[in-house]
Amino acid sequence: MRRKTFSSRVILIFFGLIVFLIFLFALIQIITTNKTSKNIMEQNLSQLVVEKKELLDLRMKQVELEVKGLGGWLYGYTKEDFNIPEAEYKSYGDIIIDPKGKDKTSLFITNKTDMNKEVIDQISLTANMEDKFMKTIQRNKDIVCVYAISSEGVLRVYPYMDIGAFSPNHDFIEDYYFEEALEKNNPHRKIIWTKPYYDWAGRGWIVTCVYPVYINNELSYVVFADVTLKFLQETMGDFRINNLGYGFIIDYDGQIIYHPKYKNEPLNKGEKVYANIFDLNKNSSLKAIVEDMTKGNNGQAQYYRDDDNCDYLLSYTSMDRLKWSIGFDVNMEKYDINTKSYINRYFFIPIVISTMILIFGYYLLKKMAQPIEVLSDGAEKIASGEFIQLDGISAGEDIDTIANSLNILSLTVKDYMNNLIKANNKLEAVFNSISGVLFIIDKNYNIISMNRYGKKITQSLQKEPIGSKCYSFFKKRETPCKDCPMVKTIKISKESFKEMLHNQDIFHIWTFPIFDDKENIEEVVVYSMKVTKKAILEKEFHQREKLAVVGQMAAGVTHELKNPLSVIKGCNYLLKQTIDLVELDKELNIELEEIIIEIENSINRSENIIHNLLNFSRKSNVEKEKIDLAALLEQIIILNKKYIIDQNIELSLELQEKPLHIYGNLDSMKHILINIIENAIQAMPDGGYLKVLGRILSVKKIAIEIEDTGYGIDEKILDYIFKPFFTTKHKENGTGIGLWIVKNELDRNNGDIKVSSVVDKGTKISLVFQKLIIE
Question: Which residue has the higher pLDDT, 249 or 566?
């Protein structure tokens, strides 16, 4: 009873300690997790608002560049002479319009405008902007409408607007967006943005980018680009806070630029938004935060709302260039971690598990004490010469009982002999359980013994291995194998290893010496294992690893080239703009334009090469996907361009149709095409002709043909080129698994291959794939 009471006390103390530690751990974990969650939330929200600001600023700048470019063209046209045939324009009521069709621009001149020569010149001049307007809309999807208004009230707009959009006496120079460009409202004559207003064409709420064009220090034209508030909504939308809050934009006066809760519809076309953020809420804490936003400050603040009894976090940043401020408002309650789930996870569940473990431990403790007493009693009987079966185990003196019992049992020969028998059986079992051919030979190469596995796999030889020479039994040779590892083992008295090739299979051979009592080698243990599949997989892995390194290097180089190329592109654009603004000699101007065009073409070619290299370096993350074989061929040709040029090879790349889509594994396609193209290049070290053709073979088939004028392959060995370790190259130049990999990858991707070749004339390889039909 005394031992049981002591055990119970130990278990109770241990149980109490576990409960206390678990409770302490759960409490610390809950506090730490809540603090971490709040810090992460604040950091994520701050990062999000900065990301949105940078994205919005970038897209607005792109719109501004388009508008400024149109202004530059318009200014340039004022230096040229244009005539407009009167028959091209018609009068509907009191409005003169351009009746070219709905795919062109619209022209509006109200009844307040005199059709004098200046107005006619303005009509002619803006007509030349039609193509520029159309390309601007096509180039920048954020812009929904571009137009220009002259100081005389001539309006040229794209896309086409219906005649009923304006009344006959509508004066465009009195519109809100035109007045914003006047010198009194824009004394610095720079690009500005309007506040939201309702579009005359009925496209909803818009903001307009305005650029005044001054000629001879007088406002002559104003160029406009309209952007809908849907553009702002798409920019501000973010899946990370969809269910937690919203984003909004205001200007430094508190006027709403975009707010998802402001849903008022306008009364009239051209009407401005007069909603102010301070009028939408009555929360004093929120008003204080918004007031800080209107001062152009950046920050993050928390406030409480009485309507839902929740805490909110508002993160905001300013866009000083536009005098706007962006804010993201989220519900902190929805962001918090569920404390109850953490209590369950770190408190109640571990307590239940710990209790079960302790109960099971208490049971084991009782079971462990019982065998000790039985062992003690049994040992005494065995010492007296009575061998009995030990059973009925119960508790006893732990340390003393175990020590005395082990001492007594160590005297029994029976157990010792049983252990020797078991050890011998184990050794024999190990010898026969080894997967691989294991045999022992004497110094004359005679096989003395062989394991069970070796006898089984050599049954096909129909010869008894014991007593046979190893080289005669396995390879039917008259003499020992060249570079036999046994010779080296006898020479150095140590184990040795050799990799040997036999019947297109690779074997790893190990030899181990067996010494007699005088430390002389008496016999040798030979262990042979066929590792053909493993070796092939290793070589295939090295090829894939090499391809990955090439991809990484290509990605690194292209990333390094993108930055200087972007600088060149920007400088070329500024040079082009500068030439448009400066009056130069006609011949010099033409020469500079040709230089700029050549620079632009070179930049485009470089960007295409960079795009191809980056696309090639992409690693496939899926088993199969849509692949453009035409693009992949162009990428591989680029990577091998140096070798093609160095070896004076004439290249013909013919893609009869782009794209050439199939459904397969991208990495497999890279291995297939790289192996075949590199083989063709290596077959022409002194130059030649390489033709790569991609074409649609039928409605459901795509063919890739690669033809070279290299060494060619003897027709007699064409049937062997897809076998592993078969190669026509020198040993140092080829492993013999390249085309084996090609064939395996083609089978994996449901492709076919045909090879035709003539020695000293060249080789043609045709690949056929299932065409991906895109509905």
Answer: 249
Residue 250 · residue 256 · CB < 8 Å: yes
Q: Is the distance from CB of 513 to CB of 426 less than 8 angstroms?
A: no
Is residue 112 in some structural domain? no
Residues 6+ apart with CB under 8 A from 459: none
pLDDT digit string (tens) for 427-479? 667 666 666 787 788 878 888 888 877 677 777 666 788 888 887 777 778 88
> Which residues are 207's β-sheet partners?
227
**Residue where the block lists tokens 């089978």:** 747
Name the more confident of 350 and 681.
681
Tell me the C-alpha distance between 418 and 80, whole Å. Answer: 114
Instruction: Give the span between the Cα atoms of 155 and 149, in whole angstroms.
Output: 5
How, if at all, do strands 95-97 and 90-92 pair?
antiparallel
Q: Considering the entire predicted model, what is its pTM?
A: 0.42
Q: Are residues 642 and 766 in the same domain?
A: yes
Cβ within 8 Å of residue 387, ≥6 positions away:
414
Let me know whether 748 and 650 are in one domain.
Answer: yes
Rounded Cα distance between 673 and 280, Å, is 64
State how far Cα 307 lies from the chain centre. 44
Digit-coded pLDDT (tens) for 96-130: 555 555 567 888 887 777 778 888 888 888 888 88
CA distances (Å), 96 to each of 152, 337, 611, in order?
14, 66, 49
Residue appearing with tokens 């049994």: 378
Q: How many domains does the chain have?
A: 5
Is the peptide bond preceding residue 159 cis, with omega within 30 degrees of 0? yes
Structure tokens, 521: 């080698």
Quick one: DSSP state of residue 251? E
**Residues 760, 689 within the same domain:** yes
Burial of 417 (0-12, 13-18, 19+ CB in 10 A): exposed
Asked if 564 and 469 sit in the same domain, the reply is: no
- CATH code for position 480: 3.30.450.20
Strand 496-502, strand 505-515: pairing: antiparallel
Which secondary-structure segment (H or E) carries 231?
helix 229-236
DSSP annotation string for 62-81: HHHHHHHHHHHHHHHHTTS-
The answer to whether residues 525 and 536 belong to one domain is no
> How many whole angstroms separate alpha carbon 65 and alpha carbon 572?
15
pLDDT of residue 213: 94
- What angle, rounded to 10 degrees, do the helices at 532-581 and 2-77 form? 40
Helices 2-77 and 229-236: crossing angle, nearest 10°?
150
Same structural domain, 242 and 315 = yes
> Given 463, 496, 530, which residue is the final one in a domain?
530
pLDDT score at 379:
60
Tell me, what's the pLDDT at 536?
60
- Say yes or no: 643 and 582 in one domain: no
- Is beta strand 649-655 parallel, antiparallel or unpaired with respect to 688-696? parallel
